[in-house]
Design brief:
Blueprint lengths: L9 E7 L4 E6 L3 E4 L7 H4 L10 H21 L1
Parallel strand pairs: 1-3
Antiparallel strand pairs: 1-2
């Protein structure tokens, strides 16, 4: 390796949104992730909805409106 052109490779703490932390090596001192292997649905086998902006509630509200409209058309 050439001297002076590579970033310093240090021990790094990775922290997840679920509270899990582990150490690895990287060029950054600290890494923050939203989902890790302890809470990811692929590894846990459980599905978890990550709803940051209320998108699920907005969809459900629109879906209810469309169902009511369809029922009204069927009743006529």
């Amino acid at each position: 390796m050439k001297e002076g052109i590579h970033p310093e490779y240090v021990e790094t703490v990775v922290s997840c949104g679920c509270g899990e932390t582990f150490t690895t090596r990287s060029t950054k001192q600290k890494i923050t992730v939203e989902i890790c292997s302890k809470c990811h649905p692929f590894y846990t086998g459980k599905q978890k909805f990550v709803d940051s902006a209320g998108q699920i509630e907005k969809f459900q509200k629109r879906f209810k409106k469309s169902q009511k409209a369809e029922e009204a058309v069927k009743q006529k």
